[in-house]
């Protein structure tokens, strides 16, 4: 469980638990600040101490390995998981460089030092300044409040009114400052993931340029690097979308805090001052307590808490309420007081003081057993102006807009991201929603309506439905598979849930997603990839019933759900879901006798001796000058919504291993060898001989392939057929899923160690080598 979200509504309660959450966020940022400071120091050592470069790299790698990101909420997207694992991957790469011990002149000032210093100064430093303001304002607010509440009620009415106004202004300022501080805390927690990792990624790109083996190392690292760039960009895009929603919610709460209080277990909660009587002649004292009342059980709970003493929490007291009465100023020298008679203390009422007359009235109304103010407020919040319905008009509007977009604007850059003028959008929507004028509106032939106006009207219609297209009822169920599971299980889950939607909702969703798939197919021109469309339509098609920061943190998972819908549109909408979906999928885990699969995500950048380069099985004359095919990440470049969150463990090596040395003439020399020094020397000698004789440089390989039973080491997969002996579920879009007995066509060795390439049912992809037997 990561850091808990900071709700804006909690700023107005300022409860002890809210303060604990703030301290957790502050501690995490302080840890980040210290880590970046240490990392900057290590980076400068790399520039100055080339003679001690290897030692500096080891320390730098250790620092990267030890740091871990904390997420807000209960889950991360696949992109965030990849970002979280990025520092570990970078650390592994540095370990490979330690054996080289070559002097290297590398300037990391522009690519690493300055961005991190700027991030630390502009972002983390800004949070520190905000913290000082927040702490200072906390002290000022509660000090002024204490002074105000201690003011005698016998003072002149004008003085009392002036004091009330002053306290209210100060309190409003404190709440606004608190809202801004909470927003900044959460923003920096999210921002650091990409603003910190990007400079480190740039540093590694520089390492490739200057090292003797930089090209070969970069070829090894390139697949992961490009995937990480997509992870970062997707995370950045989702962050921007979430930030705008969070700021909008903050502004709503700032304008009317009472209407946005969260529904919870308690009828009323907040701070009250409790009178504690002492033996004469010491009189009495007033102690601030955080109080909670539940009308159903009549339980009144209070806990002493003082903000100015470091937030120390006292012992909890629980009372059973009998009744309460207001106290007038002629019976007590304090304002806003009321007495509460409790079962536990007959004849000894508790005297409590609220912050204001309004606050006292709210408490009194709740304690008197009347209907809670908050319940009526919550009911008011749920009322929405219904201006759009899933009726004949609604379907006509959507079909008409889609037809116009696909006719006129399918190649427009930023389609659906570029918004139209609000007045024009509303005017068009009013015309389309009116049965009398809908048919008269010409969207395809007329230039009166711009494409951005049409797309904005379409989104506005979907947003103004009484509930989102994917319904409030299924909202949480759609989010769950987006947070975990394999790519295939995610698709199956969402496939199943789509068919639980009401018929009209599913029909409308089918029309829309089919259109979005067409938009994404033209992404090279309109730049609207699947990931970008997910960012635009995630909040439009899915939205939580209650607007909270915690719900807004799930926006990124809403985007992933939309990505999966677009990428699997045919399967999800044109076929029925598996009737046995709720049962465990036997293919999701390897059976007891199945061998472990070779990981393609980790373990590929292993140590290797000098002058032995990485695996290149399909080498031709141009391979030494151009990057390999694997430089482009397999699967969709649009999104990583279907990536596996974890990598499988690499397979165990067999007794005999195949080692291939391929030179530019095309000849292959095979060794069936044990890792003995004689064989290693034979390989190196052969390489040197070829190097001196050939006009071009020798590209050699010393990488092992596993050929365990049922495959034998004499099997040479060159376009042959193979049968699956174990079932397997794909963990990446470039892999194949299959059951025992499946027959693959045109099976060949892959560049991925431990993997084959083959065709099954017309689809070509990767197959774990030790899961098949050649025919």
Automatic annotation (TrEMBL):
GO terms for molecular function: GTPase activator activity. Residues 388-573 form the Rho-GAP domain. Residues 598-607 have a biased composition (Basic residues). The keyword Plastid does not apply. It is found in: Cell membrane; Cytoplasm, Perinuclear region; Endosome membrane. It holds the Pfam family RhoGAP. PROSITE patterns: PH_DOMAIN, RHOGAP, SH3. Its main location: membrane. It comes from the Eukaryota. Residues 582-591, 639-656 have a biased composition (Low complexity). SUPFAM superfamilies: BAR/IMD domain-like (SSF103657), GTPase activation domain, GAP (SSF48350), PH domain-like (SSF50729), SH3-domain (SSF50044). Residues 717-775 form the SH3 domain. Residues 579-607, 621-666 are annotated as: Disordered. GO terms for cellular component: cytosol; endosome membrane; perinuclear region of cytoplasm; plasma membrane. This is Rho GTPase-activating protein 10. It comes from Phrynocephalus forsythii.
